[in-house]
């Protein structure tokens, strides 16, 4: 029997817990009866709480027997989903002839229930999961089996599927379409009406109407209907827009190869995992994810990465191994995968073979499907903020419940009937939760999203805007982000006879003479010709332009068999120096990979029979594949000389490849091709900083936001760029960390080198331009974390993660330069920063930064697209100016949301306090009095309160990120006290007036009223009392005061006077209440059911309100928003930040041994085995065998 619980998508972002349940008929029948008797409210509860639905109608059972499952996400939000288990009953495993048509051990085979011939499945968030009968759990369907090896894909799927296999897979996997149906208006309407806040609004309307507030209820009802209509309209527009986005390329014609060799044109919707599609030379968009198994192609992955630079794809190698193909290919498996939604710009067949690809994933499992699902099922990011808001609302509800008890007591004292007591108690509950709160907070996010869109910053996850306001660390990619995309050629440094020759400067105007070095520069690239224009990586473009050669994309090249093939050919141009060759044919590419840090091509020089392999890449990587006798002994010196000056250096190498006896080029393994190379030299390029980089980094540093560089470039180059852009101040000390893997008897080690720039001699070769500080020690009492910076490369970072993990947080605390980082290492780095409780931003071009962009709290991809899978934010601004813009808007939106929350919370307490006084005297406010408060004041504030733009300058501190922060809670508490004080003062003073009378409410104005007889003859209503009139004016003006005080401007928002709509609204509101206060007109008294009071009392009211305004403003600005005062209070209370990185900073400040200086630390090595148990001796210290006692003083054991 299987378990009742399992994990779905274990280890992935969309990981969910699965619980099995079986429906009980009698329980379901009772629930249906409950729907009827509760007038649908029970059904609404089940809709919003599916876990309650299942608990009421079902009982737990094993997953294998379940007809309903409950899914729960494993993130902080803990979202529940109820899904019905479906069955495919007409599945047939065999063909008409009886032979098996499903692959052995395939997920389809494992999902078949042998006894019944059925397959069970569920669909959750557009993904289908089938029940694996062998493993006893649900498995994702719609993709090729992950355990397949490279040889399996080629042998089992390389020739396509049979018609029967294709039909079965289509039946089980479903159609290959990413279609989001346009939700019918009536469904949108029902879903919106069943929103908990609208249900509460309906409850409130019923109570208000029962209490006789017909006019007020009618207006609120009309506004609610308009709100529902507007919301449904917006949802409908978004649904249509998403539908149009999703159906693009859903139904295009593709060429499919069947197992019998037949080639058919079919609609893309019929594709299934395992199909083989043939790619023609024409441009096309991919309707699925596919693995390239034959030929090569160039694609535009702008939708996926946000970067429009063409990317070369190569076929999956045929490797005889049982290892799954993704593990076999490592981090670079994506260079064999064509992603759905990307555009195939160019294809390239190998010989006479076709360009073929095996369908990997279909439908919503694809890369494009991920983007659509990310928009459809946007994860709520502010989990902590949401919880704090709910706690705050629960406190208000608790206060309202106290108000209910008070109401019952007050009305019983006044002799009210039971019906009236119950009705008024319910009325008190309607005040507790302001129904405009969710709409107000949503409007704030929408306004922020709109402002960002105007700046060219697009967002698919509006909740993350608030997270941007809390960033205190931003990681930047270097190339294309901090520096220009284009590179300027400086020169080439040839190598010959194990030594470097004189540098050839491109500025001299002389062409590079013919040599294998020129051949490498001319041919080792991934350029393509699109519509007559050469496209590709900026480095490749600049490198090729420097040769003076020409590019021909579809040239004819003869083979040894006398046949000609189409390939890319490069030939000398008019400006090139005469060379003894007609050109070079590029036959095969091994594209550049960030993790491999190199690329290679197999080429053939015209007129020669043998092939030539050319390689370019990171010099330290290229050297590893070269014969040692061809590498100059001073390469490190030369490399350091140029990289410390900020130049980008590329290593070049080549080898001859005898063509006789070689297998087909596309079947050659990379390890065989890239071996025994001859080192050719170094290509030196200059990568200039973007003009916006320095000012932006300075702005962020001034705002106390840490800047970190995360690049794939050389460490010395990154250091130089870091100093030139101000990321590393010239006065700071730099510590380079180098790590070594364990070798035989020597454990893994960390070496700490302190370097400072030699101002006298400038840059010299190697480390001559830097001198090692041997005896310079920091004073622990005066050192600050900012006084030194760590720099480390990707290899050392990986070793540190594996062998020195306890040191990682300490290094990250002052780590500024991270070089030679692979995409996976970038993602790990961001994850480690987040573990220290930094709020991390990541800005990159999207190509190699996808993982880091997603891992960061806020990821910004510099892209021309409005949405990409790469990150939640995409910026059309091609530089890092978008980062401070986003942070400013994030802070603005965060403060606006908190201000709105404070306003509506205090407003609730004002209303509750007013009802306390009114109910004690058995009186109420009238319909139009409520209308003036809620419609004329509250709603305009909710609509316009968040329209302030962000402050033009970043403040050197962040706004509070917690809703339940001391300053916010104190603000609400003090303003509630002031409100209570104002109303108590008005209440007490009113009763002390000589004209005050609870029964004769028209006598106060008799000496000044010319129609006294008519007034006296009028019978007062329950709302026409001195107290009700006074409370109405006082609370109305109190609303306006709070509205002004909470409309916070600097330092995070534009001042109040820049919000013209809100200013006009405040002026009109205040003028209206002044008119009601002093306008002695009968129409006011009759319409609003108010009573006339003496003129001096009206002046008293105005004075009380003005005093309240002065006190409120003084408290808010002088105490609650006084940063210096709060800092003083924190010091006096010895308050210290509880963030992990702050705690670590404080510990390291007291550590006299930190940071390490010019020493080598070793990982724990010594262990002893006793009684079959390994005992780690933590105090053991490894000593190198040749180490002298004096030198060993600089070594320390890492514990």
UniProtKB/TrEMBL annotation:
Keyword Magnesium attached: yes
Ranges for domain Cation-transporting P-type ATPase N-terminal: 140-213
Descriptive protein name: Cation-transporting ATPase
Family membership: Belongs to the cation transport ATPase (P-type) (TC 3.A.3) family. Type V subfamily.
Pfam family, one: Cation_ATPase_N
Domain of life: Eukaryota
Any one cellular-component term (Gene Ontology): late endosome membrane
Location within or outside the cell: Membrane
Reactions that this protein is recorded to catalyse: ATP + H2O = ADP + phosphate + H(+)
Documented EC number(s): 7.2.2.-
Segments traversing the membrane: 29-48, 213-235, 389-409, 421-447, 901-922, 928-947, 968-990, 1026-1046, 1058-1077, 1097-1115
Molecular-function GO term, any one: ATP hydrolysis activity
SMART domains: Cation_ATPase_N
Protein species of origin: Xenopus tropicalis
Keywords: ATP-binding, Magnesium, Membrane, Metal-binding, Nucleotide-binding, Translocase, Transmembrane, Transmembrane helix
Family annotation (InterPro entries): ATPase_P-typ_cation-transptr_N (IPR004014), ATPase_P-typ_cyto_dom_N (IPR023299), ATPase_P-typ_P_site (IPR018303), ATPase_P-typ_TM_dom_sf (IPR023298), ATPase_P-typ_transduc_dom_A_sf (IPR008250), ATPase_P-type_domA (IPR059000), HAD-like_sf (IPR036412), HAD_sf (IPR023214)
Membrane topology: Multi-pass membrane protein
PROSITE patterns: ATPASE_E1_E2
One Gene Ontology biological process: polyamine transmembrane transport
